[in-house]
Amino acid sequence: MNTHRTCNNYFWTKEEDKIFENTLATNEDNNNLLEEMTKALPGKLADDIKDHYNILIEDTNAIKSGYVPLPNYPKMQNQNSKAYVEW
User: Fold this and answer.
1) For the whole model, what pTM was predicted?
2) Which of 1, 41, 77, 78 is deepest in the core (most CB within 10 A)?
3) Where are the beta strands (DSSP E) in the chain?
4) What is the Cα–Cα distance from 32 to 72, expressed in whole angstroms?
5) Contact 70, 63 (CB under 8 A)
6) Count: domains in the chain
7) 74 Cβ contact partners less than 8 Å away, ≥ 6 residues apart
8) Domain span at 20
9) Closest by alpha carbon to 43, among 10, 5, 11?
10) pLDDT in tens, 3-50
């Protein structure tokens, strides 16, 4: 991954990231995704949004190809209708 491009992530707040993710999830098949993103994130330039999206794609491709190991999350089990974490 290009280090220069990952520095762009630093300028995205958690709130902006959440808006980005929600807009992507609700408009993934929309031909006007970039337009929807710029409406939802008025403080971001279209190029910033494109870079952020491309970094997301690079990250998910690295995970899918096995370059980035997934964390060893505890197994969840349902016991008596309450969530139970098995450590």
Assistant:
1) 0.67
2) 41
3) 75-79, 82-86
4) 37
5) yes
6) 1
7) 85, 86, 87
8) 3-86
9) 11
10) 455 455 568 999 999 999 999 999 988 899 999 999 999 999 999 999
